[in-house]
């Protein structure tokens, strides 16, 4: 499977990583019921196919996803680069509350290490900015975790350029984790060039726009408590527009003997500054399909036709 280097002198990651949000089970932003055995099988299927890294977060099922990841990688620790995130705590209404206060991060990291069953977290990321804590204090605390040997690299998610500029001088930023897909391209304007210039790896999330671009999305199949029912992307007008795009993309996928989901993943990887696409899956069959995209390099004619469809 194709690999790319995360950051200057950083680790080598496969261009598809396993995204462990959906396997977190039911919570306010859960994806409906999950079968933990199937989730474990999905992770192991990914490792069997050569995927060498997993992205999870403490907030996914409030620890559940991390526990399942820990279970799945038992005995295989040396095959996998484990990334997790801090900064979202359980709120009173079962939702999440942002905090990147240093003392909170110090508590969170120990809990994540325990749930994952590892001695060190390979990549520890701030999940969302916390407007109530100076980011310099947050980043200083994250850097201390590297010095303490609890984490190897530190990164951020959902940060803008202004925040990145403030933390870059304090400690190297290994990675940014932003959203990126055919229908969500705002990082191209400033984040992508900034990261390229500063040698910051980019691991993009939701490359299939949380399943919308899989080519098989059916809103009728969503569980009553699937977060997507309430999300903007999945409301009728957006849904209709994006599913129409999927149908226009389908002939390109078909003539390559691939699925639209694979096309969506390969498309984000056409940009060399992107280290890897974090692809969510709940079942081994989904993993088997998705990993194929890691080795698919879109030819210029297909890329041009996709741009025309996307209206760029
Ligand atoms: N940092 C952040 O704020 C943030 C935010 C979002 C995501 N992430 C990370 O990025 C990862 C990926 O994002 P994502 O899960 O939102 O979106 P995604 O990778 O675009 O889509 C994943 C979803 O698509 C469906 N799917 C996967 N493979 C499929 C296949 N072969 N055929 C049909 N459907 C398939 C599955 O849901 P169904 O089968 O239920 O449709 C799966 O859960 C997450 O797991 C998480 O690690 C991070």
CATH topology: TIM Barrel
Q: What is the helix/strand order?
A: EEEHEHEEEHEHEHEHEHHEHH
Largest sheet: 8 strands, parallel, barrel
Sheet/helix structural class: alpha/beta
Structural features, described:
With 312 residues, this protein is of the alpha/beta class. It has one domain: TIM Barrel (Alpha-Beta Barrel), CATH 3.20.20.100. 36% of the residues lie in helices and 17% in strands. The chain has helices spanning 36-48, 64-72, 102-116, 135-147, 161-167, 191-198, 236-255, 260-268, 284-290, 300-310, and strands at 3-5, 12-14, 16-19, 53-55, 81-86, 88-90, 96-98, 121-126, 151-157, 175-177, 201-205, 274-280. An 8-stranded parallel barrel has the order 3-4-5-8-9-10-11-12, surrounded by 4 helices. Strands 1-2 form a two-stranded antiparallel sheet. Strand 3, helix 1 (36-48) and strand 4 (53-55) form a beta-alpha-beta unit. The protein is globular and about 50 Å long. The chain starts with a strand and ends with a helix. The model has no long low-confidence stretch (mean pLDDT 97). The site of NADP nicotinamide-adenine-dinucleotide phosphate (NAP) has 28 residues, from strand 12 and helix 9.
